[in-house]
Structures are given as structure tokens and as C-alpha cells.
């Protein structure tokens, strides 16, 4: 937020600061037909534009305002004109268009949610039947200021669990501490992650966005599964480090990991021994562990708060 | 609802009708350890009990009331004592217990949501790492009145799409009709389904609940994919008929199928032709198609409204 | 559900049972302008039609099918033609129209959610500024079969709390009971209620739907507040009885009342005494208390399960 | 985010960046008894702590980690020890405690959601019955680094509508623009707002947090109602300016305002004229207007993105 606040109108000690506008949550489904075999991309695209927007705030003049409705139309038109090779590439087309075609627009930020579909196996003809798959939603954010690009990809709602190989002890005790130490517990979380690419310039070779996403997701899952955990922080760090070490195109990863507590149920009142078999899956409250892991020498740019809590 | 309303208290022209109570949404996770290989069942269990409950309504006497907290404890204790072979079998254990152990309880209904997990493939030791899979939630409802059983299984939030092989025309036109006929459209829905088993008696051989669920889900998906559709009603009927024809243990299926509209975007204002490639995925309103399909000669017992809209 | 299943197609042991279709969740806002003073009705209207619908299920013939899109158009056209005096009256117009204008339609059911708005007090001219008010949503369901009417109104998400004057003791103890008795507890619930009117015939004087709703809501709140409670069942019964006793137009009330547990926090480990001051508001699990209260001699017609859990 | 990334472990080109942890969503209800009259505060409190946390990320050592469970206990203990005069004051107690009592903790951030309750009017004794009121949720965020305070308050889900006195025209038209100009439209939004206080030092007189919230909410509503709007940006600016001009304790306001579109329904196909009476309330997509309004000479510190879309 290096935007300079705009001069106030005469007589008011009030300035306009950072602002952006656009159409949010444009739901676009793009079908590509290869004979009887269809391919599908299912996106939720949000546009946010910034630029010379003082007048519309100060007096309601829309002379510099491309309507949000137009930004919606552009999303659908571009789905036809450019296709959707990936969420990232689609966002790059859109962001470039808004900044280069509209003089008052100095920055465009495109956010995309992508929903995944698998083919339904069946005995009929053709391949154009699909079932929604996975719990998680893929994310992409593309920002362009006319000069350089920032691409941050990610996912949310990837729910994972280790049913053992997790401990928690040796922690600080103060007068409000009642938690017993745990030497074998369930570790479960709902991963929200964002990772920033070091591709910033059209002159660079762009990453293969589809491969990068699949591999990054795989590294996160493997790191989660393969880490014997003494704290969720340690697991988080390993997930991030694994990505930085294996994916040269990524410089920074931010995680927000709720500790989805599974409490061992006390069955002793019923004469039963609970040998780490029966758990109560709690909703609230939950531990919330958030951190950035980044490549040595690279800046920290992803904002800290991925959730509002 | 053949329950007879209870006599009113003196002087009040008011009767008590059908009533039930219990603890809802008990979240239980059951881990079964086979050495380094763990198995997981993840359920949300709701208990509803009915019986001699006039006094507690009329004057607050809890003499016949087993606390809802106790029904929660029982869920966790039974997860240890009986394990969770399937949602249905677990519900049968619980329902039988409440009806046979508590004289004032005449009927027990257990509802279960089950969440599915897949193993994470990784290079570490053991097999105790999981990722939540699928969009849909498996459902089971077990009702016992001390004599006979009713088991209704199902699922919700199974989202499916055919990107072609769907038409809609030849419909009634009245003065409020503006819809054009469609000869190639996307057909998409979010399946909510319940199916009733003809197993009602302990003397009968119970179905293999796990196999039955997997096969019923498969038949639904195949019928959806293999049906060239002239209306969502036709597709619904084929999905139900396929189940009745292939699964002898099931007598009745109820569907609630929102028609998740995907509207072809008009790109002509931008000089583009939309050859069934770019769609707007709408939220509301949506068509809602609901029907029961049942085996000849068998009663219709599943209630009509699976949703509240 | 007294619908007779339809004959199967040759060779299939499969029947079509109860079915209905229509457009769900039509969001209509109706502004009535009285000079500078505007009035607002904000509804979510769902249409469900039943009748001669065998062919569309069996072979996809839409010859009897009024499109769901047409039912949507009708909602908006009727908002203009008839206005929206109340959710109930609006539903009556719609249901009558579908059954009387379309020969294949034998039954129409209209469900309405209504959102409440209050005026914003301000110093400007006119009275056309509003703020959404209340947590609860008003509900109405109107069913017409060409002969008689069933009107069920209600509400959901009305959250109430008594911070004292609630006890729970004298309950059954079995081997799974650990709950201590409570002699002063918080009683809180999120009321879901439906009430059925005894107006069934056009020849009868219809109730004043707006007054009836306001008074019924008031009686529920007063009964909740004024009842010293020994169990949530007792409070529920008083809420229903109060309505039946005071509102002659209503014959039956159904409640679904989650017991929103507020657990007294144990502060003794920190050397503090918790004198019914500090509570943990729990999410899940929760007690769920459901019952019908009805006028002597009147039938019980509202279905038992208002929620799916 | 001026946090310096931590040195990597030997041999890994990976650094730890900004990180924080704590217990989120502690639901606390505090009853204050004044004889038969009770007062209620209903909060959802989230704790996030930062400091010397390298070891727990790098190797799982919890030697500097106060458990999230302890932070939860502290919330409940402080509700007893300090009471809850306001969300802001309660957060100040908590943040000060964590930073001053734990050497490794350098910064504490407390986030609070507050739910509002109104008294139920009734004829019984006492005043301890409540009903949840309003759609919006009050928010507070308190951050302390051992030296200075940052308090940001706000609200979300305040839904407002002007049914006239809104226009939108004179905007940019490009090749993707199809929107007609509007000279009388509904303007509706769901306000999400955050405002930052200029109280930063214990030596300053703290604002009256309760009065400040009530007045700020009132100014926002009045500004929304009293502004003849040529764009939602103009309305947003007036809402912010009104606060800055009237509330000396506030230096900066950030808004995220979805333009909740209400589309005039075309009734001409049915031979009806829609004279700004019947609207379709759309869900998605929606315009999203976001901006900061601030006092001249004061810094812009509230992050730009209040939502994730």
C-alpha cells in the first residue's frame, strides 16, 4: 500500500486512500470440445481495478470508471477469445487488458477460484460427463501495474490428518496452563496456502502453471505425511521448505493452518479404555498457526492474514 | 406420524403431538490400528428418541428423560465397544440400545453423516496419513421401534455435469413463458438422494452396507452419464430405476435435484460466436426437481421434502 | 403423501411416486411508492408443482410441463399485478393461478422466506432508506389442490436466551450418564417454528396474515421469557400452548429447538470462583428438542422434521 | 510486516518470515447480575501471538510456546477477573497480559466479534431474557507490541438499501460495454468497515469505546441515507468522511462494499409496465467497491483486503 492519499476537497480534512473496484465472483464455465471428448474449466473470477479514481469518490463523476458490468463482460469474452489454459494465464490476459486499454487504470488485480472436476467412468458414448472432486479450491491472484507481474497461487480447504506421529510437550506453563502434555495425538488441519512466483516480467519464461500447481500440492501433502511432528509449526515449516526447495519458480509460501483438534474421549466413567481409538472432532475454538516460509534473499510480500479471524 | 396426541392438562384445549429429542451432531472419529496401517471412520451422529414424554412437556418432570448428554456419551462408548463397521451398522447398535434399555423410550432414530478420507501417498513409513476426499457427504438414517427396522441411506452434495446430450423443448407455453427451446445444453445438478432398504427384521440377512453404498453411488453416476436427457425429470427417473433394477436390497429412492443452470453467454455484442463454449454458472433461482422412484408393490415411505425450499 | 404411484413402463418393475417440480429461490423485491415514502417487501419464493407428470419422467416428453422458468416469470409478474400484501396472500395468488390455469397441474405449493427491513432514521428528505433487521427469517408455505388450502407460516433463526430461571435435574441415570444436575443454567435456543392455520376454504374469512405473524412471534417470545423452565421441552410446550390459546386462527404448531449449550467455565484451576458469570457457548453437539403442540380435536399435519439432522 | 526473516538452518536456503499463533474463536458469554436485571456480553475472541518462535518452526521445540489452550483459558479467566466493559477494553487487557507476562512474546493481536442482544419485553419478573438483534456483527482488533497500541474497530454484514436517489451514468464505454445508463436505481450494499483509532499510548485518554461504536454506526447509516448517489464510490466516500469529520478519535476508515445488484425485471413480455416496482435481487456477480478514507496528515495502516475475493 504505497498509494499516496489524494488531496481532499476544499474545506474537508479528509483524504482518499487506497481504493479498488470491479466485478467480483464472475462464475464462468468453459467447455472445450475435442470431438466427443470435452474438457472443462470452472472458475470464479474477481476483478479489482485501481487508478485515477478521485473524482468518482469526491463527486460521483464516472468519467474514468469502466463499469463493473463491463469487467464482467470482458471475463466472458476473454474465455472465448483466449480460452482458459490455466487460471493464472487467464488472469494474466485479463489484467494486461485492463491496464493497457484504459488510461485511467494503473493496476489490475484478478483473483480466481477454480473448482476441480473428474470424469465419470461409464459405458455410454463420449467423454462429457463429470463429477466435482476434492474438498479444496484452487486459487490464483494476478496483479499487474503495467510494468511488472505478481502471481500468487494457492488453495484453501485442503483437509488433512495424521492419526499418529504427532506429539506436543515441553511448552511454557503459566498460571493459566492446564493442558497435559501429549505424546501421541491426531494432527489435523485445513490447509489455506498461498505461494508467490518469481516470474515478474514478460521477458522471463513463464512457469507451467498447471504442473506447478499439481507438484506444489503434492509436496505439501507429502511433507505433511512424512513429518514426525512435535508441533504444528514444525509441520508448517516443513511443508513450506519442501516447496521452496523443490519448486524453483516459487519464492515465498504463506500458510494459515487451523489446528483441528481431535480430543481423546474419556471413556473411563464407562469402564472402557480409550487406547487412541475414539476422538471427539471439535469445531471451536481451534489453534491457528500462521507463517511465511521464503527463499533466502527474497522479499516477503504475501499479506499476513489470509483469514479474518 | 401415527402418534396419538396426548391428553391435555385440565383446562387447556391443547394437546401434545409427535415429539422427539436427543443430542444432535456428535462428531466422532474412530481410528482402527492395524500395526502401522490405520483405518478411519469420521461420522456426525444425531440421536432422536420418542416415547412416554408427556410429563416433561406438561410440567417439566424429567423422570422419563435420559439426558441428551447421556446419548452423546453412548455414541462415544459404542464407538469403542462395537467399533464402526459402517454408518448403518453403528446406528443399528445405538437404536437398539436406546429402545431396549429404556422402558419409556419407544422409538429411536439415528442419523449419520459420514465424511470420506483417502490415503495420502508418500515416501515415509506407515499408512496413517489422510486427505478429505469428494464433495459429497454419505448419509444414513436408522429407525427402530422395538419390532422392526427402517434403514434409509443416501448422500448429498454430489455435483455432476453433462456438458452435452441434454435438450429441453416441447414444453407448455402460457402467457408468462419466454424460455426458448434448447437442443444442446449443459445439464448439471447437485444430487441429494435417499434410498430405503427392504431389510426390516433382525431375522433377515442384513445387506453389506458398505458395498451397497458404493454400488448405488456408481449406478447413479452411470445413469446420469449414460442418459441422453430430454428433461431433468427423465434423468432422475433413470437414476432411480437403475438402482431399483440393480440393487435388490433397495425398494425406494427419493431424489431432490436442483437444476444448476449454466446459461450460454451472449457474446454477439462483442462480435464473437459462442458455440456452446462459454457459460455463466448461475446460483439462484434454480429449477428443483423432486421425485420418488420405487419398486412395484412396495410402499412409499421416504418423506417428500429433503430440503426446506 | 397419498399420491398413488404411477404404472411402470412395460418390462420395468419400477413405479414413479410422489413428485414435484418448479423454480426455487426466486428473489423478488417489491417497492411500493407512496410519494417520497417507500414501502418494501423482500421475498425468496419457491414454487413446487405436481400433477400429470408421468410422461416427462418415463420418456422425457415435456407436453405437460410448464417450464420452471415460466414459474419464475409468474412470480415477478404477479408482484406487479397483485402486489405483495403479505407472503401468505402472495402465495395464495400464485398457487391458485398454477392449479386453475394449467390442467395437468393438480397441486401447487409455494414456499416463501421473508427478510425484514427497518427504516433508517436520518435528516434527509424522503423515507426510502432501509437497514436489514432481526436475525430471524419469516416463512410461509401455501398449498392448494384446487379445492382446499393449507397455509403454514413460521420462522427460523430466532435466537433467544434466558440467563437464569432454568434448571435441569431429576432425569434418568444409566451407565453412560455423567451429567451433573443443574439448578441455575442458561437456557438458549434458535427457534425454528411452523404453525398451521385453520383457514382452508375461500368461503372462510382469511386471517390478517401480517397481524397474525406479529402476534404469534410476540407470544412465543413472551412465553419463552415468562416460563420458569425445568426442561426445554416444558418451555417448548408453553410456547406452543400460548399460541394455540391466543390465536384462534392457528390449530397446530411445530417446533425444532436446538439446546444451544452454554457451559459454565471451570475457573477453579486459576483460583477464581465462577458464580454463573462466565460461560463457553458451544457449537456442537447440541440437544435437539422437537414437538408438535395442537388444538384439541384438530389433526396433526405439519411434518416432523424441520431440519435434516 | 517489517518482521525480519529468521536465519535458516544450516544447508537450507529457506527462511522463516512473519508468523503468529494462538487460539481462535473462543466463544465467551459474560453475564453481569444486577439483582434480577442481567446484562450480557457475547464475544468470539481470537488470539494471535508473535515473538521468538524460530525453534518451534525449525525443530519443534516448544520451549518458547505458551500453548494455544492456555490463551483460551486466559480469555475465560479474564472475563471473570476484569469483566467485559467493551470488546476493545477486553482486548487491551488480554494483549497487555501476553506481551508483558511472556518474555518470548513480542506482539499480541486480539480479534473480537461481538453479537448484539436486545431484551425481550414481557410480563414476568426480572430482566434476564434476550433475543439476538441486528444482522451485523461488531468487530474489534487490538494490537500491542509492548510500546504502542493499535485499535481497529468495525462491523460486517450491515445490509442497507436506498430504494431511490441513486443513478449511474457518464461512465467509460469500451467494446465490451453493454450496460445502459441508469437514472433511478436501487442502491444496496452489505457494509464491511474497519476504523482505526488515534489512541496509541496508555498515557492518552482512551475513547469511550461503546459510545464511539454507536455513533460511528449512526453516522454511517445517516450518510448512506442522506447521500444522493451518482456511484457507490461517492456514497462510500461520504460515509467515511462523515466519520472522520464527526469522530475525532478516528483517523482512518476502510470499507468493502459489495454492490448488491437489484435488477429491474422486464415485464413487457407480459404486457406490464415496471415502474421501478419489481426487482430481482441478484447474488453473484456483484460490484465490489473498496476504499480507505482518512484524516489529513495521518497514515494509512488498515490493510486493503477485508475479504478474500
TrEMBL record, chains A, B, C, D:
Amino acids binding 5-hydroxyisourate: 68-69, 168, 185, 233, 259
GO molecular function annotations of the record: urate oxidase activity
One Pfam short name: Uricase
Record key words, sorted: Oxidoreductase, Purine metabolism
Gene Ontology BP annotations: purine nucleobase metabolic process; urate catabolic process
Residue numbers annotated as active site: 23, 68, 261
Reaction(s) catalysed (UniProt annotation): urate + O2 + H2O = 5-hydroxyisourate + H2O2
Gene3D superfamilies registered for this protein in UniProt: Urate Oxidase
Record-listed O2 binding positions: 68, 259
Involved pathway(s): Purine metabolism; urate degradation; (S)-allantoin from urate: step 1/3
Its biological purpose: Catalyzes the oxidation of uric acid to 5-hydroxyisourate, which is further processed to form (S)-allantoin.
Protein name as annotated: Uricase
Source organism of this protein record: Streptomyces lasalocidi (Streptomyces lasaliensis)
Gene field: pucL
Amino acid at each position: 500500500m504505497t498509494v499516496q492519499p489524494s488531496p481532499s476537497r476544499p474545506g474537508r480534512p479528509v483524504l482518499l486512500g487506497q481504493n479498488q473496484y470491479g466485478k467480483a465472483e464472475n462464475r464462468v464455465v468453459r467447455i472445450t470440445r475435442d470431438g466427443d471428448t470435452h474438457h472443462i474449466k470452472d472458475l470464479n473470477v474477481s476483478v479489482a481495478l485501481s487508478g485515477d479514481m478521485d473524482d468518482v469518490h469526491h463527486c460521483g463523476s464516472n468519467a474514468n470508471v469502466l463499469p463493473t458490468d463491463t469487467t464482467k463482460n470482458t471475463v466472458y469474452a476473454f474465455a472465448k477469445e483466449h480460452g482458459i489454459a490455466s487460471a493464472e494465464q487467464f488472469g494474466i490476459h485479463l489484467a494486461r487488458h485492463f491496464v493497457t486499454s484504459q488510461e485511467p487504470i494503473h493496476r489490475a488485480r484478478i483473483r480466481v477460484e477454480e473448482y476441480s472436476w473428474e470424469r465419470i467412468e461409464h459405458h455410454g458414448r463420449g467423454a462429457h460427463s463429470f463429477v466435482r472432486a476434492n474438498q479444496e479450491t484452487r486459487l490464483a491472484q494476478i496483479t499487474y501495474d503495467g510494468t511488472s507481474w505478481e502471481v500468487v497461487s494457492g488453495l484453501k480447504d485442503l483437509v488433512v490428518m495424521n492419526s499418529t506421529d504427532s506429539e506436543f510437550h515441553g511448552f511454557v506453563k503459566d498460571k493459566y496452563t492446564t493442558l497435559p502434555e501429549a505424546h501421541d495425538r491426531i494432527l489435523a488441519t485445513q490447509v489455506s496456502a498461498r505461494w508467490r512466483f518469481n516470474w515478474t516480467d514478460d521477458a522471463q519464461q513463464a512457469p507451467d502453471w498447471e504442473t506447478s500447481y499439481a507438484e506444489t500440492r503434492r509436496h505439501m501433502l507429502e511433507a505433511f505425511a512424512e513429518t514426525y511432528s512435535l508441533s504444528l509449526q514444525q509441520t508448517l515449516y516443513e511443508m513450506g521448505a519442501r516447496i521452496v526447495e523443490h519448486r524453483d519458480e516459487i519464492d515465498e509460501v504463506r500458510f494459515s493452518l487451523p489446528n483441528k483438534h481431535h480430543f481423546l474421549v474419556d471413556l473411563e466413567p464407562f469402564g472402557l479404555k480409550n487406547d487412541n481409538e475414539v476422538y471427539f472432532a471439535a469445531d471451536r475454538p481451534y489453534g491457528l498457526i500462521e507463517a511465511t516460509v521464503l527463499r533466502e534473499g527474497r522479499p516477503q510480500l504475501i499479506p499476513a492474514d489470509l483469514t479474518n479471524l
